[in-house]
Amino acid sequence: MLNENISFSTQPSFENSVRIAPPSDAVPHGSIVLSRGSAADLLRRPFLEGQQVDTTSPTVQTAFPVSATRSVGTDNQIVRLKDGSLLVLRAGAMWDTIPSPPSWMAETITGTGDRKGQRGCEMFFRSADGGMTWQAHP
């Protein structure tokens, strides 16, 4: 259990999820990862030896790796899998084209901007290196 509050950012955010990544080759002492809902990004701080959070280095900010036809929303969860990797689930929107689209895809939908064929989706992102890098997970 950590004995102090940890500051990740000076800007307030909401609908946040946080997990601890265990020590690994990529992060020798582990790290703490925050998935910010309102900012739609990831923040990470490494642990120092003795399970102390590194509060002197700047927080590492990472954007979600999404295509130009997708956008992450605020609802999210982050879990640590048995292998120590982290998996983030984000609600979002997509407006990818599809073959033989249904008639509703011609409608302009308001959400992440006004886009034809926009619809809700769930997106998964995985990090196998303590939150340093993230990939879209099928």
Any overview of this molecule?
The chain contains no helices and eleven strands. It has one domain (17-137). The chain has 138 residues and is mainly β. The chain starts with 16 loop residues before the first strand and ends with a strand. It is 0% helix and 47% strand. The chain has strands spanning 17-21, 31-36, 41-48, 52-53, 60-63, 70-80, 86-94, 108-111, 113-116, 119-127, 135-137.
Shape: elongated
Average of per-residue pLDDT values: 89
What is the terminal-to-terminal distance?
Answer: 33 Å
**Strand content of the residues, in percent?**
over 45%
Number of helices: 0
Cα-based radius of gyration, to the nearest Å: 17 Å
Major sheet summary line: 5 strands, antiparallel
Helix content bin: under 10%
**Strand element count:** 11
Structural class: mainly beta
At a glance:
The protein has no helices and eleven strands. It has strands spanning 17-21, 31-36, 41-48, 52-53, 60-63, 70-80, 86-94, 108-111, 113-116, 119-127, 135-137. The radius of gyration is 17 Å and the shape is elongated.
Structural key phrases:
mainly beta; 138 residues; 11 strands; 4-stranded antiparallel sheet; 5-stranded antiparallel sheet
